[in-house]
Amino acid sequence: PLSGVSLWAQPPGGRVALGDRLVLGCEVAAGTGPLSFSWHRGDSGAPLGTGPRLELPHVGDEDSGHYQCRASDGASAAESPPLNVTVL
Fold first, then answer.
1. Which long-range contacts (CB under 8 A, 24 or more apart) does 29-35 make?
2. I need a labelling partner for 70 at 20 to 30 A (CA). Which of 50, 53, 58, 76 fits?
3. Which CDD domains does its entry note (predicted)?
4. pLDDT digits over 6-55, tens only?
5. Which pLDDT score, from 0 to 100, does residue 1 have?
6. What pLDDT, on a 0 to 100 scale, did the predictor assign at position 22?
């Protein structure tokens, strides 16, 4: 089964200036087979994107919040701990 799903952010810590670029990445420590990824913010059901990276080229105030990455290998799925993004 999948395990060790984690997030990284650039800039580090998810603190980004209004209008700047934010890149989030998802990594999986253990898992087999082709992986798929989806990105979620807060309780919103619709994914923000798919793939191991999510790029927001010009962040706005509405982009603040908790982000999570969900990884799946087809047989199992796991979520990263939430990362709080703060728009300064």
1. 29/3, 29/4, 29/5, 30/2, 30/3, 30/4, 31/1, 31/2, 31/3, 31/71, 31/73, 31/76, 31/78, 32/73, 33/73, 33/74, 33/75, 34/73, 34/74, 35/2, 35/71, 35/72, 35/73
2. 58
3. Ig
4. 999 999 999 999 999 999 999 999 887 899 999 999 877 789 999 999 99
5. 82
6. 97
pLDDT of residue 74: 87
- In whole angstroms, give the CA distance from residue 34 to residue 53: 16
Count CB-CB contacts under 10 A for residue 66.
Answer: 14
What pLDDT, on the 0 to 100 scale, is given for residue 45? 74
7: left (phi over 0), alpha (psi -120 to 50) or beta: beta
By residue range, what is the domain housing residue 12? 3-87
